[in-house]
Amino acid sequence: MLPPLDHIPREIASLGDYEAAARQRIDPAAWAYLNAGAGDEWTMHENVSAFSRLPLRTRVLRSMQGASTATSLFGCTLDSPILIAPTAYHRLAHPDGEQATVLAAGATGTAMVVSTQASLPLEDLAAAAAGPLWFQIYIQPDRDFTSALAERAEAAGYRALVVTVDAPVNGLRNAEARAGFALPPDIRPVNLNGMRMPDQDAAIRALLFGTPVLDHAAIWDDLGQLRARTRLPIIVKGIACPEDATLALQCGVDGIIVSNHGGRVLDGMPASIDLLPAVVEAVNGWVPVLMDGGIRRGNDVVRALALGAQAVLIGRPILHALATAGALGVAHAIRVLRAELELAMALTGCRTLEDIGRHCLHGSSLAQIWPFDRTDDLCLDPER
Ligand SMILES: Cc1cc2nc3c(=O)[nH]c(=O)nc-3n(C[C@H](O)[C@H](O)[C@H](O)COP(=O)(O)O)c2cc1C
Ligand SMILES: CC(C)CC(=O)C(=O)O
């Protein structure tokens, strides 16, 4: 295996290049954990390929004076609508782990969502942060422990809680099983120290029902209770249909992330970008809707914003950049993606993020995923 780089060679020009570079630097079993999807990985691949079914529509000769990708979310000012998705165990990718990712996030004006399953203490990461951090929470079988975790995040200065609801059980991780992945003894979910972990493997072997894991899985009421126990904004991650978006709003959440967990939980789900429009429609502007899954290019960010997302999160590419060149790699990857976004905005005639809309996409491609009688406002208004 190659060691991490201390510079970025010119061959690394896109996020895709980081994937190839990372593969040479991560142990094959850890790679199976960090990069794989569930089952046959159909959803994981679909997350990426669905974007190519949304061709972009250019506009020319529009003024770009004062153009900007800046935005603000839950009181955090961000350089762009690109955030770092929560991913577990960054020390599997690089010895500096989340410490390096936090550094890069601060240096690039990006918000990072730190995973419950981070490999370093959430307080240490907050102390190293130079920008906004949000904390991702899985509602644990031990609800008191979950509340205590939320309190720790609030006390440490995290600016929002991202409650992930789409993984009550681990997905079918065939790639991990084939590679014989197990967490090395020196990499642990240190923020869960002191909590009794149910044995998920035993639970799955017992065919799920009646097992401790699903007996204690979170329900809507738990989300409502967490809402009552923290002053932080709560963003629910893993909403994939309008019915659940409506229930989340009824629980008083402050934001929604449309996600299929990077295709790591239920293989067979549609691509995240294809799930987005129906959720946006149901939310109807009440709270910001974000999305993740398959974002690899600045063009994809425009496509997601065109379909109503206020921001996007990226998962695997951050791990690839981290493995390749630590904090430097992550900062570079974020810069590359933002530069691509700027280019895509200039060529679709969008000076600011507010200018991005469905008019940036060709109407014929939208008919497939926009199942509403809304094609009339596909925006042929010359001023938009
Ligand atoms: C290795 C890995 C670990 C992840 N760990 C978490 C996690 O701890 N919490 C969480 O909410 N999502 C987790 N996710 C899902 C990501 O937050 C995100 O939804 C997904 O990676 C987005 O898709 P992308 O990788 O195509 O960008 C993980 C994803 C990967 C690849
Ligand atoms: C430790 C896991 C539950 C983290 C996760 O969400 C994932 O691997 O996708």
TrEMBL record:
<keyword id="KW-0285">Flavoprotein</keyword>
<feature type="binding site">
    <location>
        <position position="261"/>
    </location>
    <ligand>
        <name>glyoxylate</name>
    </ligand>
</feature>
<feature type="binding site">
    <location>
        <begin position="292"/>
        <end position="296"/>
    </location>
    <ligand>
        <name>FMN</name>
    </ligand>
</feature>
<feature type="binding site">
    <location>
        <position position="259"/>
    </location>
    <ligand>
        <name>FMN</name>
    </ligand>
</feature>
<feature type="active site" description="Proton acceptor">
    <location>
        <position position="261"/>
    </location>
</feature>
<dbReference type="GO" id="GO:0010181">
    <property type="term" value="F:FMN binding"/>
</dbReference>
<feature type="binding site">
    <location>
        <position position="173"/>
    </location>
    <ligand>
        <name>glyoxylate</name>
    </ligand>
</feature>
<dbReference type="Pfam" id="PF01070">
    <property type="entry name" value="FMN_dh"/>
</dbReference>
<feature type="binding site">
    <location>
        <position position="136"/>
    </location>
    <ligand>
        <name>FMN</name>
    </ligand>
</feature>
<feature type="binding site">
    <location>
        <position position="138"/>
    </location>
    <ligand>
        <name>glyoxylate</name>
    </ligand>
</feature>
<keyword id="KW-0560">Oxidoreductase</keyword>
<dbReference type="InterPro" id="IPR037396">
    <property type="entry name" value="FMN_HAD"/>
</dbReference>
<feature type="binding site">
    <location>
        <position position="115"/>
    </location>
    <ligand>
        <name>FMN</name>
    </ligand>
</feature>
<dbReference type="InterPro" id="IPR013785">
    <property type="entry name" value="Aldolase_TIM"/>
</dbReference>
<comment type="similarity">
    <text>Belongs to the FMN-dependent alpha-hydroxy acid dehydrogenase family.</text>
</comment>
<dbReference type="InterPro" id="IPR000262">
    <property type="entry name" value="FMN-dep_DH"/>
</dbReference>
<feature type="binding site">
    <location>
        <begin position="86"/>
        <end position="88"/>
    </location>
    <ligand>
        <name>FMN</name>
    </ligand>
</feature>
<feature type="binding site">
    <location>
        <position position="164"/>
    </location>
    <ligand>
        <name>FMN</name>
    </ligand>
</feature>
<feature type="domain" description="FMN hydroxy acid dehydrogenase">
    <location>
        <begin position="7"/>
        <end position="366"/>
    </location>
</feature>
<feature type="binding site">
    <location>
        <position position="33"/>
    </location>
    <ligand>
        <name>glyoxylate</name>
    </ligand>
</feature>
<keyword id="KW-0288">FMN</keyword>
<protein>
    <submittedName>
        <fullName>4-hydroxymandelate oxidase</fullName>
    </submittedName>
</protein>
<feature type="binding site">
    <location>
        <position position="264"/>
    </location>
    <ligand>
        <name>glyoxylate</name>
    </ligand>
</feature>
<feature type="binding site">
    <location>
        <begin position="315"/>
        <end position="316"/>
    </location>
    <ligand>
        <name>FMN</name>
    </ligand>
</feature>
<feature type="binding site">
    <location>
        <position position="237"/>
    </location>
    <ligand>
        <name>FMN</name>
    </ligand>
</feature>
<dbReference type="GO" id="GO:0016614">
    <property type="term" value="F:oxidoreductase activity, acting on CH-OH group of donors"/>
</dbReference>
<dbReference type="InterPro" id="IPR012133">
    <property type="entry name" value="Alpha-hydoxy_acid_DH_FMN"/>
</dbReference>
